């Protein structure tokens, strides 16, 4: 019965991912290279100019995997800050996702190159011609003290430094505890998380503004960063659940992670789906109600040219349907149903980011006088997704190789193993 | 176990065999009656104490869980366990099925959501349905247009629906929990057991209810003995009695009495009475003070409102300056002063010092005198001839052409601010009569809508400053008076700004500073070429582009097209009224005041939204409309 402390084989707690890294690292890297090359080739067929179309797809896929890893960092830090006991058995997976954040610095190079080479990037403010004499030149010049190339690159450096450092630091400390068993390290990790959590919130908010919101530099929303962070939280809980389910299918983590942890991941996923809907709708409602031209610009393009369908798809697919689907505890405790909803939500998260980024292409096409502009769906996006996914997964496997999947000498591990939903 | 008070405690070793039978099988349990039950003896001894169940005590949570499983397996249904804290797994040990509370909460949430949506739909979106169904008006919703949002719009309704979802979910959870737990329960005989309180501290208890069909004292003892309780106690209900019969009767009567006052109030509120109402506070209803417009026999003229004392003037109300306060030519000007003063009745002329009255009287006087062939009223009824051409100018001569404020840049900007707040809604930011209100009225084909004047016609341009000031202050035709909303100096600022605005659409190259002329010419040429280019491209697109550029130019201080000099440029359509300005002032005067009945063009053509389209009357310069003439004279 539940009140009896479970007996867990200590060896089962020290399991790692085994030969997964060795088997899949190289193929995944190859997939990454092939994906990006294919994306470049496909983009050359596009009407938008190959660099622009490629970079839009790239930005989207980049942010999909970036938000998951950032979510891993958030998850780790919040567990430390709240001194959570239940989550110890799944925390290592989130640590690994966070420790993988360094790879997004080199992966951002194409985007930064787009900034450096005039007019080749995705950002209007990085094009000197548009800043000088474009239709929105006034505003761009007004915002130039912030939205300029050197400052942007400096900010990117700060973001990647903060994320990579904290991701690595918390992972390293946790692994050190595996070796030494020093309970004092838990307090050390707590302290680092207390310092890093606000910093990460700020950097993610500003990164969202720099990378995504500045796609429409004439528009702003003060809740934008929160919406993105809600996306991070949604995607990381779905990803953690998917990883747990997959690993347990392989025969690892079967004893450490119980159906109770699985249900809790599902609960948090459910909660953050509601949170996502709340903040997304807040942003929409305020703009819709005020109906001020400088704000409605953002949603105007998203209610035309086929984007209305995507908006409706998000409302139903990212909120209403998974809300009802994940409501029952039985759904969260059964492997197959939880897996289904996690994959569903991850897909919707990708659609969400797509709606953040791609309408800018529609906007540009409309302003270029092209008629009958439709959704800019393209295989380029899929190829970018495969490419960046390949790189990110390959480095994730490298990060995880040979490391126990559970922080097995964490002082709160016993509490986590005995954790039981009433 | 510790002895508590005078309760006899079973201190025998909790070790052996068969209890409850009373046979000498060794140390045995005995079902104890708790003396506390008897300490409070009921006053009514006629009723025998009743056995309501037994309570078993345990020292360890493991024992409790084992005992629970045993009771569960015995098929007992009416029983419960009591622990100091929530025990994991106890619901399974007790065989408690999963609660239906989540379903109650879900139903509550859905009910709340639907309630919120339906309520808002009924309150603001049900007009059409209600009308079709023939529901009387007082049962319908309000159908307010708020912020220009649709009558029924989901985004606006979601916050309320969301809040009600949460509220009803919480109600479902809270009240559902109470009902499912059969709470509140005011009393339970078990609470009289002295050791029962250990269930909130360090004891674990199981209570079997005598209402269970399988319950009997010996059976309970047999069932519980193998679970090694430290004690098993009978629970006697010696306290509860039926309330005396008069209490419910009295309560019922009291309740009925309490209903009387609200019933009386309700009746009186809905009954028509022939007698006057009761005045509980007469001093307040009949006050000694006088109200406005009342009669006061104390004074010779019997007016309760006292006029100003002759020969005095209230502080801050010295408005002698006709030009500044009323936009009129100063009264010492013989042209204005002689006429009106002569027209006033003798004697009164001295007392009524208001120059505005002079002016107004003179205005009407002049009208009736000069238009000798016909009076005002027949003219507007018959729709007869237009007044003589000179009439308009003669009226205008009453108004000052001076500007009683300094024409500084600051004043112009202040005027622009005020103009954009108060005037632009109808007249448009550019003053072309194309404001948002007009566009909307055109769009919905408002029948009674009189299009606002285009302020760039020659007529308006040639109006005296004082006339414009007067129009702002007192209104003109359908335009309401803004005197109470815009303070005096700002009204003049608006006039000043309006002059600048008009100049911007009617400037000649000579008005441009020497140094700037070449640049202006160049820009004009470029704009012209661009316009021609666009026109050549595509007719439809050209129309849209022209509309845009027209709006932009209206905001500019200097318009490149002024280079052409003679073209007034308010309109790019070749309307006859726009070309030779000043030639037909009277006709132009008509055109400034279009009449929707005579000229329904704007109402029927919602696509006319560009500034140019606000000259609909230009197409019919010969409009001979009585309402116009009336408007001018009024």
Automatic annotation (TrEMBL), chain A:
Transmembrane regions: 24-45, 57-78, 99-117, 152-171, 192-213, 219-247, 268-289, 309-326, 338-357, 377-406
Keyword Membrane attributed: yes
Keywords: Membrane, Transmembrane, Transmembrane helix
Protein name per Swiss-Prot or TrEMBL: Quinol:cytochrome C oxidoreductase
TrEMBL record, chain B:
Transmembrane segments: 100-123, 160-180, 245-265
PROSITE patterns found in the cross-reference section: CYTC
Comp. bias (Basic and acidic residues): 508-531
Family annotation (SUPFAM superfamilies): Cytochrome c (SSF46626)
UniProt feature, compositional bias: Polar residues: 1-20, 366-382
Region of interest called Disordered, as start-end residue ranges on this chain: 1-22, 326-347, 366-395, 507-634
Biased composition (Acidic residues): 602-634
Taxonomy, superkingdom: Bacteria
InterPro entries, alphabetized: ActD, Cyt_c-like_dom, Cyt_c-like_dom_sf
Residue ranges of every copy of the Cytochrome c domain listed in the record: 410-502
Protein name in UniProt: Cytochrome c domain-containing protein
